[in-house]
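Q: Entry one of two.
A:
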Amino acid sequence: MTEKKISGRKKEIRPLIGVGCRIGRLTITAPTEKRKGGYMVWLCRCDCGGEIMLDTRCLQRQTVTDCGCVSKVKPGQRDIAGMRFGKLTAIKPDGQVIRGSAVWLCRCDCGGEVHAPLHQLTAGYRKSCGCLGHPARKDYVGKRFGRLTVTAYAGKRGGMHRWKCVCDCGRETVVGQTLLQTGKTRSCGCLQAEVYRDNLKLIDGTSVTVLETTRNRLIASNTSGHTGVYLNRRNDRWAAQITFKGKTYYLGSYADKKEAVLARRRGEEMHDDFLEWYYVNHPRDGSTKAADRQRAAAYTVVKIIHRAGAVAFFIFLPGLGFLIYYLPGLIQAFLEKVGVDREAVLTHTFEIDRQPEHPDVREALNVVPVEDAMAVGENTEKRALLLKQLKKNLKENYRILLAAERDEDSESAHYVAAAKMEIYRLGQARWLECRRDYEQDPGNPEKYHAACEALTEMLASGVLSAREQSAYRKHLCGLVQGQIETGESEVSLREYEEYLNSLVELGRYADAEILWRGHAGRMRSEAAYQDMLKMFYRTGERQKFEELLDDLRKNKQIRLSPKGLEQLRYWMNRLAGAAMDN
């Protein structure tokens, strides 16, 4: 090798690489057609008989001088064998690579071994097998820590020595050495349970302290402003519950928050009865029996006040007697003043009451409702009933089994939840299939009707949340509106009804009124009238409401159902009474 001076620096002239050239223990035998980084790859033979392929740059730099028989470090890796890093001594690489760094097997001064990446060792992040960060192992066998007696060493996990201990109550547990030394763990858990019971002062499974302190105090996560009342976001209803003697009682769900609060107050009568009994039979330290009796009497008064029905009865009792005494005379004077034909009124009422009604099939066949069966049945019977009904026909029977959704038996409720998920999956799959078919052939009436039917079934399934219902209603509105624009004759009466109902429920009242005015001839049905009456009632448009109600009364082509006829009579009487008041 020769050296030459370039720009004041000495530059080493690297050897020329060719067949027969020796680099360390390697002899170049032949070139190959492979290239690495633009450099030719050569086939080399080691003195031990092994072969290895290296590129020209690697041979010139002499970073590899054997086939691996002498050096255990792969080409391109740094050899740190024998170097010390804190208490660790690098031994050899284990063949793994983490984030581009070779992993080395290291031996600690304490005798332990650890695998550490090269970049952690060179940066000083890893200096021991873990013994520097935790106290050294000591012999604790036979020593006591609180209620625990150490019996044997349980190994090391998570960088902490662990010991097997026996508690005074007889239970065994494994505790970390640091927790024993600092006194954070003194038992298997029985000590904490005893302290909890002593602090709560449980009487018959109930803590009087908790009842007294939490009756008028809200927890931080409460959003309703009332203890035991919360909003169920799955069905957008207010639910009420109460916990007594370690058991939680579900008091029902209500659309109105006030009804849920009232249900919770009725449930608190259990607390009042218990506190009344407690103050009489368990006088407090330093208090007299007279004071406890006064406290019990106060809770009795509070319990009576919470019974809103009884209070309302005594408040309105004088007015009720006045009404009973003068009501017959007021009715007779009203009829004489208005000039109503009493015979015609009685005849009209008789004819309305004689309208055909649907018989109660379950009562006629002596069928036990699912709600009653779920209430009186044992868990095994309820589960068998649910499985039997679901195996018969899941699509038809899941609706009648929704009563078990809030059952105390978690497995029964799980059956119903699984059935709802399956119904949602089937309905969603059918809608997506019908939608894809319709988008491929929009002019096919059968595919249009199939898509509308799939959407209608999903909306009527009862398994959708409020947000999902809004999304499906928007799909239905767009589907029917598109068909009206292309071919109005293909839209059926039921599809018009569902379209109008979706517009009303979505709050698109202007679009609903335009649809009603523009297609009045094709939408004359009881359901359409009911939706429009609902819309005008919500918006407070009294004149339009009265005009539509009068139109429904005069329309002889619409045959009202018993429920629709009852609603018609109700609104006609309300409007007649309002006109008399004005």
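Q: Entry two of two.
A:
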Amino acid sequence: MLVDNISKLRWRCRRGMRELDSVLINFLDNFFVDLNQEEKEMFASLLELPDPDLHSFILGNKLSDNEVLVNLLKLIRSSIKSIN
């Protein structure tokens, strides 16, 4: 899948948890376009995770050694402030 296909990514942002839907769609709409290709691919990979794992990563309860993932999660967390 081309990670630049926003409509497919938007569909994959729809989760079983409303909170995740809101966070992921907000990030996609407002920040995704500014990511580099590696970050875009990492975002697409994140969307493959089960909801509990994705939720844990976003909350910071689950950690990673992958620098790209760590930085992307920081961006996603900071984007949460712009939802309200």
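A: Comment on entry two: The domain at 6-80 is CATH 1.10.150.250 (DNA polymerase; domain 1). Residues 11 and 25 are 9 Å apart (CA to CA).
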